[in-house]
Design goal:
alpha+beta; Alpha-Beta Plaits; 5-stranded mixed sheet; 6 helices; 34% helix; globular
């Protein structure tokens, strides 16, 4: 890379680009994935203003579970205990609960990094939500009507994510984003 061009990359056509482009969807996606921190770049919120004065949109960044635990030795954890189910139903239920909680956290006015994972270490299926900021854990716990966990526990809050709680949280989180089919060539579309 040429001297003095550390912050400039080449786009697909080979022309240099910087982060100052108008707010296209590609630039928004790029802004979410690029870090505003000189450190490891995991889980930092970004600010996006698109020509609208006095409007600031801050998005809470989702980090990997191991990355968040490495950066914050004592994260603020909210535990969603899942009811017992059998076999394949249990796996799909845990995955859908995890996606629901990610949507919920993104919908609520949270500011720090977060991570979500499914755990079976306690002998029960749980979805663990770890937060960088204690206020973020408080906001999510209030929305889920979670109770304070015992002082000796690693978690700050816990609640049971049964069907009733799932319906309530789905109303707050909103519907899942539709799945997009990958683009196909006309020939591939005709073949299938």
């Amino acid at each position: 890379m040429a001297k003095g061009t550390e912050g400039i990359a080449d786009d697909a056509e080979g022309s240099p680009r910087t982060g100052s482009a108008k707010g296209t969807r590609e630039d928004e996606t790029r802004s979410r994935s690029e870090s505003t921190s000189p450190s490891d770049g995991v889980g930092y919120p970004y600010d996006k203003t698109q020509g609208r004065p006095n409007e600031r949109v801050t998005m809470m960044a989702k980090a990997g579970w191991c990355d968040l635990l490495a950066r914050f030795l004592e994260p603020h954890i909210v535990v969603a205990a899942l009811p017992d189910l059998t076999g394949e139903e249990s796996v799909s239920n845990a995955q859908s609960a995890q996606r629901l909680l990610v949507r919920l956290v993104r919908k609520l006015p949270t500011a720090g990094a977060f991570a979500v994972t499914v755990s079976r270490q306690s002998g029960k299926r749980e979805v663990l939500c770890a937060f960088e900021e204690s206020d973020d854990a408080d906001i999510v716990a209030k929305a889920a009507k979670a109770t304070k966990a015992p002082v000796s526990a690693r978690a700050r809050y816990s609640f049971v994510l049964d069907e009733k709680a799932e319906r309530k949280l789905s109303k707050i989180a909103g519907p899942p984003e539709p799945h997009r089919r990958p683009r196909t060539t006309p020939y591939e579309g005709w073949r299938s």
